[in-house]
Input
Amino acid sequence: MKRILLYCIFFIPFALPAQTVISININGSINPVTADYIHEGIRKAYYDKAECLVIHLNTPGGLLQSTRIIVSSMLEAPVPVIVYVSPGGAHAGSAGVFLTMAANIAVMAPGTNIGAAHPVSLYQATDSIMNEKGTNDAAAFIRTIAEKRNRNMQWAEDAVRQSVSITEKEAVKNNVIDLIAVNEQDLLNQVDGKQVELGASSVTLHTKNARVTLYEMSFTEKLLNILSDPNITYIILMLGLFGLLFELYNPGAILPGIIGVIAIIIAFYSMQTLPINYAGIALIIFALVLFLLELKIVSHGLLAIGAVISLLLGSMMLIKSNSSLEFVKISMGVIISSTIITSLFFLYVIGMGLNAQRRKAVTGIEAMIGATGVSLDTLDPAGTIMLRGEVWNAEAIAGNISKGEKVLVKDMRNLKLYVEKTAN
Output
């Protein structure tokens, strides 16, 4: 019996499989791709029978709709979810506040902060009825999360309504998060033995010696995450429109047209993940139409000015946030730069077109008019002349022209030149 007990004490623990923790990284805005990534991370943790899922979070915010999907996945998760605001200097802003408070265990690294910090809308009044409705809805949403996780409801609401932001030490003191951890291993050591509620039951975490498995985004998810950036989407859209315009200016070039169509398709695909205002797209397209008309119609710059204004307004209106809490917009630097480059491009094209119109023709009838040649015989009034190394039938308009005299072409009909003596 003693031998059996000794065997159980010394050998059975080594025969047990090591505990596993799944770790994922969110470093950027919250969007539909992020929501799918977190959902897949929860599912992987469940099927791998992991102790928990650790979400390393550093975000300025994102879309509220995607945030709701993520929070729902976290509240209904079959495995414990730990949100770790890290590394030092990281920030859980706007949507990140919702995610942090929805975690079973909320942790922050030293030197981090948490708070709404939502951007002020540049395109609509901040006291508008729609913005107030969105804020009230978000406040009710975060109060529900805080109550579910037994966190500070008042601070949660202030984070939404007043954009308050606090450090990791203040967050622990105000019952916003559970603890502070220097690194991931310190986090796992501190949460070891903690009880976490999962629905109607509770589980005890065993994470002290757990093996951490990093679950990364797939290549497709990384690509879609990049395309979900409104600045990238806007730039791709403009490049696509430029490609089509190059093809229209130079029919048969093929490559600009192919690149333009592909870029526009990619831009419209990525727009599905963003709150797009189609009035903004209409204004951008209208601006390009005005630029094209400027090449054909003499408007003394009025069409070009209208195009610049339309492009600027359309770019500013392109992203339509349902609430100022959503951290999703196109950088004004990108908008202004694109507008200037587009304007300069079209001014260059217009200038080239005007120069081409002023340039003397080098082929056809127009190229012959005004050219000078030498008579090969006496024009009385008909005869032949030498012009640009070619022999032409010619007829003098007034008077006879002697052989060897210089002549000036005044007209051309039926491959016959009508000439007169030059002044020299």
